[in-house]
Structure formats: structure tokens, C-alpha cells
Amino acid sequence: MPVIDPEPSSQDTMLKGSAWMTAGSIFSRILGAIYIIPWMAWMGSYYPAANALFAKGYNIYSLFLIISTAGIPGAISKQISHYNALDQYSTGNKLFKHGLKIMTFMGVIFGAVMYFGAPILAAIFTDGDPRSIPVIKSLAVAVLIIPILSILRGYLQGYSDMAPSAISQFIEQIARVIYMLLATYVIMIMNKGSYINAVVQSTFAAFIGAAVAIGILVLALLRRLPKLRRLSRNGQPIADVNERNFTREIFEQAVPFIILDAGITFFNLFDQSTFNQFMRMFVNASGAQLDNYYSLFGFQANKLIMIIVSLSTAMAVTAVPILSGLYSKGDKDKIEDQISNTLELFFFIMIPASLGMYAVAQPLWTTFYRYDSLGVLMLQFSSIISILLGLFTVLSAVLQALYRNRLAIKYFVYGFIVKIVMQLPMIWLFHEFGPLIATSIGMAVVCWLMIRELHAVYPFNTGRISRRISGIILFSLIMFVSVMFVNWVVFHFVGNSDRIISVVALMLEAGLGGVIYGYLVLKTSLADKILGPRVERIRRIFNIR
User: Fold this and answer.
1) CA distance 152 to 319
2) How far apart are the first and last CA of the chain?
3) How many other C-beta atoms are found inside a 10 Å radius of the C-beta of residue 87?
4) Burial class (CB in 10 A: 0-12, 13-18, 19+), 100
5) How many C-beta neighbours within 10 Å does residue 385 have?
6) Please, what is the Cα angle at 23 between 19 and 26, to 5 degrees?
7) Residue 10 confidence (pLDDT)
8) How many Å is the Cα radius of gyration of the chain?
9) What stretches pass through the bilayer (predicted)?
10) Are 24 and 324 in contact (CB under 8 A)?
11) pLDDT value at position 20?
């Protein structure tokens, strides 16, 4: 198992960890989106109602999941890295064991609260929809065990060992999707049953996936046990810290992770809680129409953009232990360089990904959901906002890794207040697009405040970052225009609604965009500057000089 080495290999550690976490996140997110195709077909005419019900239940579940894990996985990763940097492996192991007890307790408590409090939660977050009560209860079962899953991932990530987390994440999604599709097929196709029961089983699948993932991580931990014991024996003895001090240390670091990890979820829940009421002030629409509007941006578009937002999550998870280790050693110069590397890697991946999703929005939406002009516009707008959502994820993780927790929370609160204030006027002006615009304004405020604070404390090289981002934007725009032209040509002649044509067009356009962007960053050596000298081998393979 690799141990954090914040010397010259910190960039390699960041890239390797990001590669593993990105692969796990991307594959699991794609799988989590692909299941929609058969799921939608089997739901038939009930799909819009089932989709909205699924989305509402999952937003509540996401909030409870973050609260029940209490930010402890991120805190454990951060503190394990801190103790490892000080050669105190035994102390880190003791911290992990104590955290495991806390996580088990948290899972039981919050699982019970979610299960028995389902009617109250439905009244608060779903406008009193009684259909959501069994959905919330089915998700409460997953809350029982996911805290244990999360702390196992946090422990291994504290050693910058990202492979088990990535693999378990993907297998978790496979198990979840298999169960939910099998259950839906049996209920809706074989037994002609209720779509509500099908949604309940689809959400219960979260428990199945989590149980499988825990098994994968336990096996990974057992394989690494000899190495862990050797590190403990050769390191410093256990520090004189009692369990009460450990509990305080864990929660002091965990509370910021709760608030900031739940940041995007808070924005989504605010939309969910206010959308119907605010829209009724300005639009004469039925409840079914409003559910459809909300589902377009709150679930369908959101599910697709979270594929690319997960890229930034992967980078954030990788950056936390690296920066925490550097902070523990007091290496300010390397911290500044690592912040620059993290931001450059984020923009290098996120800008072309978001513009690429904007460009392929039409075939992408048609492939997953069937053609809907409003849905395509929602996805295009959401894909641009995803840059801000991803940047918030990375910046909040960086600030927490550098123990600037209170400021990170304060800036998030400022941005959330801006979101609340802007929600009603934006819905008045832009109707169903209003919540997205209010989110973009709030997130922009948060990101600006966080970048300003980071630069004030660790004055990273803004000149270097600006030059490289300029190149990234230029090459991304060239790719964007090329793909948009191909998209216009294809759909100008064949129409909008053919799903098979859309799948072929999506593959063609995504491949073309990747080739154009990849060639430009390799030809100009921009990739070498951001990803390091290993890129030279890729250039040689493709004979790009």
C-alpha cells in the first residue's frame, strides 16, 4: 500500500489517485445513468411520476447520508494522513477503530430517525406526498450500513490508496442496478404491479449495493493487513490520547465535512421544497406538469451532469490527504504548488467535459430519456453550471485539508443565502430555469470567496494558472464548435427523435471531441505541463510531435 510521500512525487500521487477515483466515479455514474433506459421502458406511462418520486426520495436520502456519516470519512482520511506524515501509524489506526464505533452508532440512530420519521420528512420535503413515505423508509435501511462503508473508504484514502475505493464504488453500482432492474421487471412486467412498489424496491437497492461494497473493502483491508502492521511496528508509539479526545478530534474535523459535502444537496433540497410553490405564483400549471418540470432539471439533467461533477469529487478526495500531509510538515511552498496543480488539473478535465456535454446534449438526452426540447435546454444549461459545482467541491476540500474549516463553512453559508434570496426573482423571470440560475449565482459567490481566501494565505501562481486555463478554454472551444457543427448536420437531415441515430451520433461526437481536444493539448505540450512528463509516452505512441 502506498504511503503518502509529499516530496517530488506528490503530483504523481495526485494524478494516480485521481485516475483511480475518476475511473470509479465515471463508470459508476455512467452505469447509474444507463439503467434509466430499461427502467423507463418498464415503467411505461408511469415513468414521469415514478421518476419524480425516485428523485424526491433520493434527495432526502442524500441529506441523511451525509449527516449520518457526519463527514467522518473525510475527517478520518485527513487525520490518518496527518498522523502518517508524522510517522504515527499506530495512533492513526487507533483513531480509525474509534471512528468505526462511532459510525456504527450513527448508522443505527439516523437510520431509525429516517425510518420512523418518514411521514414528517415527507410533509417537509415532498409537499406531503404520501407516496414518498415507503420510499423514504426503504432508503433508511441503507443508512444503517453506509456509514461503515464510508469510514472504510476514508481509512484507505488516508494512505492515498484509492484503488479499493474506486473498485468498490463501481461494484456497488453494479449490484444496485442489477437488483433494481430485476425487481422493477418482476413487479411491472411480470406481475403488472404498482409503480410505487417498483420505486420502493429500486431505492432499497442502495442497501444491496452498500452491503456488497463493504465486503469488497473488508477483503482489500485484509490483504493490506501485513503492510499496515509493519508500518505500525516501525513507526512512533501510540500517542497518549484517550477516547474522549479522539471523539472530539474526529467531530471537530467532521462537522465541516458534513456541511460542505452536503452543499450541493442543500441547494437541491431547497429547489425541491420551494419549486412547486414558487412556480404556482407565476405559472398556471397542474401538479403533474410541475413534477415534470422539476424532474427535468432536478433529476434527469442532474443525473447526467453529476457524471462530470464526479470528476471533481475524485480530485477532491485525492487532494485532501496530500495537502493534509504537506500541512502537517509545514511545507508552504509545496502547498502552494499543490494547490496550483489541483486547480489546473480540475480545469484541464472539467472545462472540456462540461462544454462537451453541452455540445452532445441532444443525442445524450434522447439516448437516455427520449427527445425533449426543454430537457435538452435544461441539460445544456446544467452542463455549464457543473463547472461551478465541481469547483466548489474541489475548493471546499482544499480549504478543509488546510484546516481553514470555519472560513469554508462561512463562505458556503453566504452563497446559500444568495441562492435563497435569488430563487423567487429568478423563477419569476425565467420560470423553470430559475432554480438553475439562482444556483449558479450562489455557487459563483462561494467559489470566488474561497479562491480569494486561498490565494491570500497561500499565494499560488495565478499567472501560470491563467495562461494554462486560457489554453484549455481555447482548445475546448475549438472542440465545442466542431462537435456542435457535426451535431447540427446529423440532426438537420435525420430529425430529433430516433434513439438509435442518437446513440450513433453520441458515440461519433464524443469520440470526435476527445480526439480534437486530446490532439491539441498534446501538440502544444499543454498536457505535459499539467499532467507531467509521462505524457511524452502518449505523444510517441500517436506520433504527435
Assistant:
1) 18
2) 36
3) 13
4) middle
5) 20
6) 130
7) 55
8) 23
9) 20-40, 60-81, 102-126, 138-156, 177-198, 204-222, 254-270, 304-324, 345-365, 377-399, 411-430, 436-451, 472-494, 500-522
10) no
11) 64
∠ CA 32-38-42 to the nearest 5 degrees?
A: 130
pLDDT mean by block of 10 residues, the chain; 545 residues: 43 58 66 79 85 82 72 69 75 79 87 92 83 92 88 79 80 92 94 92 93 92 81 66 65 70 81 87 82 79 83 68 77 86 88 94 88 90 93 89 86 95 94 92 96 92 91 96 93 77 90 93 87 77 77
Give the residue carrying C-alpha cell 502552494.
Answer: 336
What are the DSSP calls for 228-271, one per residue?
A: HHHHHHHSPPPPS--HHHHHHHHHHHHHHHHHHHTHHHHHHHHH
> C-alpha angle 255/256/259, rounded to 5°?
90
Angle subtended at Cα 333 by Cα 328 and Cα 337, rounded to the nearest 5 degrees: 100
Sign of CA dihedral 413, 417, 423, 429: negative
Residue partners of 130: CB distance under 8 A and separation at least 6? 122
Summarize the chain as % helix, strand, coil (round to 5): 85, 0, 15
- 431, 432, 435, 440: CA torsion to nearest 10: -90
pLDDT number for residue 97: 82
* Contact in structure between 405 and 378 (CB atoms under 8 Å): no
Give one DSSP letter per residue of 9-69, joined into a string: THHHHHHHHHHHHHHHHHHHHHHHHHTHHHHHHHHGGGHHHHHHHHHHHHHHHHHHHHHHH
